[in-house]
Each structure stands twice: as structure tokens, then as C-alpha cells.
Specification:
With 657 residues, this protein is an alpha/beta fold. The chain folds into four domains: 193 residues, P-loop containing nucleotide triphosphate hydrolases (Rossmann fold), CATH 3.40.50.300; 161 residues, P-loop containing nucleotide triphosphate hydrolases (Rossmann fold); 89 residues, no CATH class; 68 residues, no CATH class. It is 43% helix and 14% strand. The protein is built from 27 helices and 18 strands. A hairpin with a 2-residue loop joins strand 16 and strand 17. Helix 2 runs parallel beside helix 3. The longest helix has 30 residues.
Length: 657
């Protein structure tokens, strides 16, 4: 049966390695995990079973680009699939939801953040779901290279929505991460399939070049290959957006048509660049890691790392985009240690300050003492109050959950407003009895200002009590969604509010602050260690292909691949960055001079710490520095070339005892 679907729908006579056991497990009703290299056909492991399962397959995907590419593939093969994402209008999203409810759509793709949406959660509870698919599933694990705190909630969502099966897909998971994934979703060890990470068609070369010579070396390397072959699709990875722009311009002047791609470009421009590359109209993209996720181009002949990748996992994922057609492809690493400081600064910048952690703890203690144990927060507001960036703040909240201090109850949009497409009386007259009274109460609690009605839930609750009506929030949200589906109104919502229950207020807030700060410091040290493990891999005398496979627990790669620089007798030694002048306290004070008055006038920001000064000097924008418009000041990022730890040590001397 599945063989026939494989042939008739997807046009393949047989499965690729690893696909069959995963597909068979899912069709048989079991949860499973597939750990396959990039480009090895993970997506088929849910696409085919979705056609044999009785209900909807819900796919959680981290990036819009991933969704769009997979949807395009499914539609080409006649599979009814759709997404709900931020690029859609409300009418477009409503049309998708209607198709899902009618059973016309077999596969629905969403981001993990969509599950926080109150209206979407109300909708999905009404829909029977056979399978939850988690793409890029390594994001679930704190030990993974791209941990996303919201992913930790997916096992709870699976239980909440009564989804019987889960399928986890990833290309980059170490043995520790795989075990973490398997345990969280209760997947039997026998239903975890790894196909190995060794790619015999990839030539791995580590050939570090000093920073000042790197543009010229890259241009010469590309010219030699482009002159020898017709078309040489290449991705060059860099760390910073400005590097992408400068390097693309340099290559253009050197006679190599190159295009910069990064998150700072308008979405229309990024999409146009991607389409041109996919169609073969451009052959060289100079990109940050914003480019590549979901790029299903089989004939990429080269992936170049101009700067250091962020981790071994990122390196593996990025080179995995080369040679998906099985033809020989080149993976070149030119970087030395000159960009190591930038990568380390990214790590340090995500470690919350102790005083920020204390502010979060104070907020939850206040909720326990004065708000009946319900803690309502908006992430951006709490981020500003604590001076913790949103992603590490999410991690902090998850850590409080894991310690049994708080538990998520629900999320809702604090503000709803709607525009009626007809007179209010017409809407009310569509209903009779209690429902008519309910609709009238909603309208009475939503005064109109010109065009839009702003719904006041407190007023609605009072009216409901006075009139003996059920005006529970869930019913109201469902009703508004129904009105939108019918075309009777346009609805807008904003200010996502998350509600937690404080299960146990900390008896010793100071000790809890110490514990959480130590946790983040340990994570910081672990991430720094991962960077240095990556450097050790690149400088190995042993086979690069073998070392890379072993990192992911794959012992099946040959001891000597014969197609890497180490096997060719050219082990790399990464050049150190050029020496920097010693830092003097007077120099730091000069760079901080313009920031001083703004900090002095900032009455809500708390004391000035060495960490705050270091982040300013190294060019890391925190919520507090953003509020003070610190980027406009001349000292912002003035010392970004220096190691963060060195700047922090010097800044500590400027803090009053």
C-alpha cells in the first residue's frame, strides 16, 4: 500500500535509506524519530503517511521558508496541504481553517508560536489530528545547537490536543540530543532511525587564510572553478550582514557575479534573490545563516565558510546543502580565529544579568502574594523591565516551569478590536434567544470609535453577570472567529499576554536567583566550549569526514575518507587574529562618556554594572540600551574586536565598590 503511494503520488520506485522503517512505524500508529543528513528525504517520512492516516497531520516548522518550499512540493504532487503563517491575511487564514475543518486539507503547517494564539488553539481543539510532526526537532533539546524554549512545550501540546502520535525530524542531533528528544515524546528506541552523517561526494577542505587576504583568496578559488565548469552554484556563508554586502561587492568587482543575502533585506528582495538562485539565474550567494533553510536545490556545487560557523552542528547543516544530487561538491572553510570573538560575544550577550533575573522573580512573587497566584505577563514588557532579551527570557521562564515554580495556563491577546461589515442591529438579528442576548452583550461591551469597536472584557464580564449570560472568554473568542469566517466582521488582536500559575513561590528568592544565574553561566561556558570543540575539529590531523560523523554518534564512516584536507596531508592550523593594543581604563571611560548622562537619567533601569558597560562597548543591544537609544552613541560597539571577557574584566574596574 505505501509502496503504491510512493510510486503513484511521489514518483519513486523505492525508498531512500532509512525512510521505509520511519514510514512503516507511523502508518502502524507509533511515534518515531528520523535523524537523516540534510537533503536525505526526511520530509517524505510525514508526507506519505499523511495520505494513509485518518485525520490531519499537523507540522511544526521553525521557518516560513521551510514551509513554503515543502508546500510547493506537495501541491506539485497533488497533496492537499496548507499553512497558517504571518504572511497571510485574516481572510486567507480563515479559508485555510475552513478547509481543515471540512477535511479537505490533509497537512497543515504552522510555526510553534502559532500554538500560543488563543483563536488558533480554540480552532485546533475542534479538529481531530492523527500526527504531530516536529521539523528541526533538535530545537527541543537544551543540549542542541539551536534550542528554542517554546519547543519544550510541544509534548504538553500533544497531550492537550489529544494527538496520538509524534514524528521528530532533524539533520543535526548528537547522541545526547537524540536521547533527550526520544524521552520527551516517549518514542521507543527501536523507532529512532539514524542513517549516518557521512557524505562520500563532499570534499571537505579547511584552508584558513588571514582576514586581510581572504577576499582575494575566495575570488581566485571561485574563478578557477567557474572557468572550468558551466555554472557553479555556490553559497558563501559569513557572520555579519555588513560582511555579506562588502564581500558580494568585492566579488562583483573581481568579475564574479555575487548577491548579498541577509535578514536586513526586505522580504520581497530576499524572496527574489532566492528565486533567482533556485532558477539558476544567479550562481553565487554571499549570505548570513538566514539563507539556506528549506533550500531544496540539488546541484549546489560549493559551500564556502568565509567566517567561522556558529557550531559543528551549523557547519554540518550548512555543508549538507551541497551536492544533494550525489555529484562531487566542494566544502571550503577559509576562516581563521579572527571571527571567534564575534561568535563568543553572541554567546555572552544572551546570558541574563543577575539583577534582571531578580526582577523576574520579584514579579512572580508579587503575583503569588497579590494576584491570587495568577501571573499575567507580556514578554516584551517583562523583557524591558528585566533588561533580558526575549529569547533568554523565554528560557528563564521555561526553567521556572521545570523547577515546578510556575505552570503555563493559557495565552490570550489582551486587546481585540473588530470592524463590522454590516450594521450592529443586523448582526444581532441573525440570532435568537440566548445567543441573540450574548451577541448584544458583546457589542455593548465594545464601544465604537469611528470604524473600529474595542472589546472590553471587564465590561463584558459585568454585563454577563447582570444579564445571566455565559460570556466566558473561550466562548467569546470562538464567536468572534465564527463571525470572521462568515464574512460579517474583520478582527484584529494584539498584545499577547501569557498567564502562568505560581505553583510555589520561592521560599528563598536569593537562592533561586543564584541557582538560575549559575544555570545561565553554565550554558554560557558550554556554548564557549562548543566553539572551541569546533576549532579542534577543524585543526584535526585525523580524517575530517570521520571526526564529523563521530560527533553525531555515527561510527560507520571510513577511517580515512580520502577526500578531505586532512586525508590529503594538509591538516589545518587556524591563524590567530592580528594582535590588539592593550586596553586601558581611560580608553573605556572615553568610549562610555556619552552613555553616562543617559544612564544617570534612567530612573527605572537599576544600577550600572560591568556587564551593561561591556555589552555597550561590544555592540550588544539589550532592551535597556535600546530604550536609551545607545546605538546612536559613538562608543557603541567601539571595542567589538576585543574578546568580551577581556572587556568585561576591564569594565569591572570602573564600577564603584
Amino acid at each position: 500500500m505505501i509502496q503504491e503511494t510512493l510510486r503513484q503520488v511521489f514518483g519513486h520506485d523505492d525508498f531512500r535509506p532509512g525512510q521505509r522503517p520511519v514510514v512503516e512505524a507511523v502508518v502502524a500508529g507509533r511515534s518515531a524519530a528520523a535523524i537523516f543528513p540534510t537533503g536525505s528525504g526526511k520530509s517524505l517520512c510525514y508526507q506519505l503517511p499523511a495520505l494513509h492516516l485518518p485525520h490531519l497531520t499537523l507540522v511544526i516548522s521553525p521557518l516560513l521558508a521551510l514551509m513554503q518550499d515543502q508546500l510547493a512540493f506537495l501541491r506539485r504532487h497533488g497533496v492537499a496541504a496548507a499553512s497558517i503563517d504571518s504572511s497571510q491575511s485574516r481572510d486567507e487564514a480563515a479559508a485555510v481553517m475552513s478547509g481543515v475543518e471540512r477535511g479537505e486539507i490533509r497537512i497543515l503547517m504552522i510555526s510553534v508560536e502559532r500554538l500560543k494564539n488563543e483563536r488558533f488553539r480554540a480552532f485546533i481543539r475542534r479538529v481531530p489530528i492523527s500526527l504531530m510532526v516536529v521539523d528541526e526537532a533538535h530545537c527541543i533539546s537544551e543540549w542542541g545547537h539551536n534550542f528554542r524554549p517554546d519547543y519544550l512545550k510541544l509534548p504538553d501540546y500533544q497531550r492537550e490536543f489529544a494527538i496520538p502520535q509524534a514524528l521528530l525530524l532533524t539533520a543535526t542531533a548528537t547522541p545526547r540530543v537524540i536521547e533527550d528528544m526520544r524521552r520527551r515524546f516517549a518514542i521507543d528506541q527501536a523507532d529512532v532511525t539514524l542513517t549516518g552523517f557521512y557524505r562520500p561526494n563532499l570534499d571537505l577542505t579547511v584552508s584558513p587564510v588571514a582576514a586581510e587576504s581572504r577576499p582575494r583568496a575566495l575570488a581566485a578559488w571561485l574563478k578557477a572553478r567557474q572557468s572550468a565548469e558551466t555554472g557553479f552554484p555556490t553559497i558563501v556563508y559569513v557572520t555579519l550582514q555588513q560582511t555579506a554586502e562588502r564581500l558580494a561587492a568585492y566579488l562583483d568587482k573581481a568579475g564574479i557575479a555575487a548577491t548579498a543575502y541577509h535578514a536586513g533585506l526586505a522580504s520581497e528582495r530576499r524572496e527574489a534573490i532566492q528565486r533567482a538562485f533556485m532558477a539558476g539565474e544567479s550562481s553565487c550567494i554571499v549570505a548570513t545563516i538566514a539563507f539556506g533553510m528549506g533550500i531544496d536545490k540539488a546541484d549546489i556545487r560549493a559551500v564556502v565558510h568565509y567566517d567561522l560557523p556558529k557550531s559543528i552542528e551549523n557547519y554540518s547543516q550548512e555543508i549538507g546543502r551541497a551536492g544533494r544530487d550525489g555529484q562531487p561538491s566542494a566544502c571550503l572553510m577559509l576562516a581563521g580565529r579572527d571571527t571567534l570573538g564575534v561568535l563568543e560575544t553572541f554567546v555572552y550577550g544572551d546570558t541574563p544579568e543577575r539583577q534582571g533575573i531578580d526582577r523576574v522573580i520579584e514579579a512572580l512573587v508579587d503575583a503569588a502574594e497579590h494576584h491570587g497566584g495568577d501571573w499575567e505577563l507580556t514578554l516584551n514588557a517583562l523583557s524591558r523591565e528585566s533588561d533580558i532579551r526575549p529569547l533568554p527570557l523565554k528560557t528563564l521562564l521555561v526553567q521556572l516551569e521545570l523547577r515546578g515554580i510556575i505552570a503555563p495556563r493559557h495565552s490570550y491577546f489582551a486587546d481585540y478590536r473588530f470592524r463590522l461589515h454590516e450594521e450592529p442591529e443586523t448582526l444581532v438579528e441573525r440570532f435568537a434567544g440566548e445567543r441573540r442576548a450574548f451577541v448584544q452583550a458583546v457589542l455593548d461591551a465594545a464601544p465604537r470609535a469611528r470604524t473600529w469597536h474595542a472589546l472590553d472584557f471587564a465590561t463584558l464580564e459585568r454585563l454577563g453577570a447582570e444579564r445571566g449570560l455565559d460570556v466566558q472568554r473561550g466562548r467569546v473568542i470562538t464567536a468572534l472567529g465564527y463571525f470572521v469566517d462568515k464574512g460579517w466582521m474583520t478582527l484584529e488582536s494584539k498584545q499577547l499576554t501569557e498567564v502562568y500559575r505560581v505553583l510555589e513561590a520561592p521560599r528563598d528568592p536569593g537562592a533561586l536567583g543564584d541557582e538560575l544565574h549559575a544555570y545561565f553561566r553554565d550554558r554560557e561556558a558550554g556554548e564557549i566550549d562548543r566553539l572551541h570543540a569546533m576549532l579542534a575539529l577543524f585543526e584535526t590531523d585525523d580524517c575530517l569526514s570521520r571526526r564529523l560523523a563521530e560527533w553525531f554518534g555515527d561510527a560507520r564512516a571510513p577511517a580515512r575518507c580520502g577526500h578531505c584536507s586532512a586525508c590529503r596531508g594538509e591538516p589545518a592550523r587556524l591563524p590567530a587574529p592580528p594582535p590588539l593594543a592593550p586596553l586601558e581604563p581611560r580608553e573605556l571611560a572615553t568610549h562610555l562618556e556619552a552613555l553616562g548622562p543617559r544612564l544617570a537619567a534612567d530612573t527605572q533601569g537599576g544600577p550600572v554594572t560591568a556587564e551593561l558597560m561591556t555589552r555597550f562597548l561590544c555592540g550588544i543591544a539589550t532592551p535597556r540600551l535600546t530604550r536609551l537609544k545607545a546605538r546612536q552613541l559613538p562608543g557603541f560597539g567601539a571595542l567589538e574586536a576585543y574578546p568580551y571577557a577581556v572587556v568585561r574584566q576591564q569594565a569591572a574596574a570602573l564600577v564603584p565598590a
